[in-house]
């Protein structure tokens, strides 16, 4: 049977190169699979962190609203005390800034 390769003595080298190509493709496929797994893991970690940030932001906004409501209530109930506290804070702040 005639060899499909132009040079009969190159068949051994050609089969070695073909085998090496198959191994290389297998290695590339394996690396691609592992890289895909790493990207999936990183995406899951980022999504989890994002969820925690959103949750904490909502908690902080709710706490801020509660504090603002409590402050408004205090000022309505004790307007002179609130005015005195603001004047005292302003005085102390001006003393600190002047130095």
Describe this structure as you would to a colleague.
- With 99 residues, the protein is mostly helical.
- The protein has one domain.
- It has helices at residues 11-77, 79-98.
- The N and C termini lie far apart (102 Å).
Distance between the termini: 102 Å
Strand content: under 5%
Tally the helices. Answer: 2
Summing up helix and strand content along with how strands pair, one would put the structural category as: mainly alpha
> Total domains, how many?
1
Kindly state the number of beta strands: 0
Query: What composes the largest sheet?
Result: none
Low-confidence stretches: none
Q: What would you report as the Rg, rounded to the nearest angstrom?
A: 37 Å
Question: Order of helices and strands, N to C?
Answer: HH
What would a concise description of this structure say?
This protein is an all-alpha fold. It has one domain (11-98).
Features:
rod-shaped; 0% strand; mainly alpha; single chain; 2 helices; 99 residues
List the topology elements.
Blueprint: H1 11-77, H2 79-98
